[in-house]
Design goal:
The complex is a heterodimer of chains A (about 120) and B (about 110). Chain A is globular. Chain A is about 0% helix and about 45% strand. In chain A, strands 2, 4, 5, 8, 9 and 10 form a six-stranded mixed sheet that branches. In chain A, strands 1-3-7-6 form a four-stranded antiparallel sheet, with no helix packed on it. Chain A has about 120 residues and is mainly β. Chain B is mostly beta strands. In chain B, a hairpin with a 6-residue loop joins strand 4 and strand 5. Chain B is globular. The termini of chain B are far apart. The chains are: A mainly beta (about 120), B mainly beta (about 110). Chains A and B meet through strand 4, strand 5 and strand 9 of A and strand 4, strand 5 and strand 9 of B.
């Protein structure tokens, strides 16, 4: 597609429920990133996929968070047993592989998650 | 500790005026510095990317500077327009790990008519 597509754009869920957030990166972008943006805070790195390499999961805040990327394209971020502190905007970005600093990241519009 | 600090936190200016946003960082090892514009309800959009050897980069009415010695960057907006109202985020990339970007909290700019 022309840009990074995320769905849903808004999600309200009850505490304790599981949620799945979807990211469809730009075609041909082998690198995919998930970030979380809490109100009044900077973006927080969650997880990074690069091609077929093992993902960098160092930013995931707890074992309730997981992500997968099927076929090197679409990615799903899953949050199990959601808590109120999980409420945030979850942003996905993609970029061309390699050349850190040479390529910009293209961000999606995010999924606003509200846990009630 | 790797940190990116931005100032001011928010700024209100009149249409047509210029403004400068500041970014100070303590990130090591340094790879690059980016400025993003984030409209309300949208994802960040890249404005400029600078590596260690670059000290200025322009994108239309946006000009970013980088002083790697003092670890400071600025984003200057010339002849502001109402559409410039957004959050401007300074992001520093760490060398050695492609997934490792340190984000500032942003400066919220409001341009008034």
């Amino acid at each position: 597609g022309a840009g990074v597509s995320q769905s849903p754009s808004n999600k309200v869920t009850e505490k304790g429920k599981d949620v799945e957030l979807r990211c469809d990166p730009i075609s041909g972008h082998t690198a995919l990133y998930w970030y979380r943006q809490s109100l009044g805070q900077g973006l927080e790195f969650l997880i990074y996929f690069q091609g077929n390499s093992a993902p960098d999961k160092s930013g995931l805040p707890s074992d309730r968070f997981s992500a997968e990327r099927t076929g090197g394209s679409v990615s799903t971020l899953t949050i199990q047993r959601t808590q109120q502190e999980d409420s945030a905007v979850y942003l996905c970005a993609s970029s061309l592989a390699l050349g850190e600093g040479q390529y910009g990241y293209t961000f999606g519009s995010g999924t606003r998650l509200t846990v009630v | 500790k790797n940190q990116v600090e931005q100032s001011p936190q928010s700024l209100i200016i009149l249409e047509g005026k210029n403004c400068t946003l500041q970014c100070n960082y303590t990130v090591s090892p340094f790879s690059n510095l980016r400025w993003y514009k984030q409209d309300t309800g949208r994802g960040p959009v890249s404005l400029t990317i600078m590596t260690f050897s670059e000290n200025t980069k322009s994108n239309g009415r946006y000009t970013a500077t980088l002083d790697a010695d003092t670890k400071q960057s600025s984003l200057h907006i010339t002849a502001s327009q109402l559409s410039d109202s957004a959050s401007y985020i300074c992001v520093v990339g760490r060398g050695g790990s492609q997934g490792n970007l340190i984000f500032g909290k942003g400066t919220k700019l409001s341009v008034k008519p």
